[in-house]
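Problem: given the chain below (198 residues), write out its structure.
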Amino acid sequence: MTSQTLLALIGLAIATLFTPGPNNAMLATSGAHFGFRRTIPHALGVAIGFPAMVLIVGLLLGQLFQSSVLLREGLRWGGAVLLLWIAYKVAFSGGTETKSADARPMTFIGASAFQWINPKGWSMAIAATSLFIDPASPLHTALIVAAVFTLIGLMSSATWVGLGQVISRWLTTEARRRIFNVTMAALIVLSTIQMLWH
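Solution.
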């Protein structure tokens, strides 16, 4: 993986893992209700569970990539379209509002399992692996993608838990939500363009 590709991957991970979505909304809510320490298992379940899913998807796609150029290009461009769709949804999303909060923090296993039913997680896993897995070395690049998502995911989860109440208050106004969401959407678009360009 070239340094330019790695930078594009890091930019994509930052943009997608820090933007409001189901995981971050639940982490912020849990941090606000239960505190940092009690939410650690939930945060670790998100930060480790999603990259594990990315690794599994990446290895399966990596094997398929080796046998089909058409599939590889289709998934690459399909992944780019998914990322642009996610950027659009992020730009026009409503922030971190949630309908309800659990009576107790989510467990590590529960948060890890949630990744497999999270539509944003599936979209990101397919898009990221189709753009960043090198068919010549699928295991090596899948491990890099998973490692980047793990490191950024740990930072993102800690941020959303630790600043849950602050972020919830800060993102309550329409103007602030719009600035944050449009900035993150622009980063997703730029990462996608950079990846397709190279």
